[in-house]
Amino acid sequence: QVQLVESGGGLVQAGGSLRLSCAGSGHTFSSAIMGWFRQAPGKEREFVARIRWSGGSIFYLDYADFVKGRFTISRDSAKNTMYLQMNALKPEDTAVYYCAAASRIRSATMRTLDEYDYWGQGTQVTVSS
After folding, report:
1. DSSP for 21-39, written as a single string
2. Residue 94 near residue 125, CB atoms below 8 Å
3. 100-104 contacts, C-beta under 8 A, 24 or more apart
4. What is the pLDDT along the chain (129 residues), one digit of tens a residue?
């Protein structure tokens, strides 16, 4: 059974940085798509970033417009862990951040929730002004 566990959330001042981690267990994703989503209070869960790889090669990185230039998604295959480096954080980045994994490609964009098969429990990120 695949399990995803996020960590690294917390409270940070505007302009600060955090690095989120998503550790996978139960399956080694030698070829897959994984992504980060977030959900702010009273809002729907939204796409943040995704990474597609096969073996040791990263094929594609994709970011939502509101995080481009500030967030970086990466993966450590040896640790079966995905990361989200978040810089220049803004109060509007406050949300619960979720990692997700897809067992296969379902669309060209892979930005919707129902395209992902496995989800973590989420980690809270709070950015104070």
Report:
1. EEEEESS--SEEEEEEEEE
2. yes
3. 100/4, 100/34, 100/35, 100/36, 100/37, 101/2, 101/4, 101/24, 101/29, 101/32, 101/33, 101/34, 101/35, 102/32, 102/33, 102/34, 102/35, 103/32
4. 789 999 999 999 999 999 999 998 886 655 579 999 999 999 999 999 999 887 777 778 999 999 999 999 998 888 889 999 999 999 999 999 999 999 888 988 899 999 999 999 999 999 999
Taking the C-alpha atoms of residue 96 and residue 126, their distance in angstroms, rounded to an integer, is: 8
Stated length of the chain: 129
According to DSSP, the β-strands at 95-102 and 57-63 are unpaired
Residue 21 CB contacts under 8 Å (≥ 6 apart), including other chains? 6, 7, 8, 81, 82, 83
Residue of 1, 25, 12 whose CA lies nearest to 123: 12
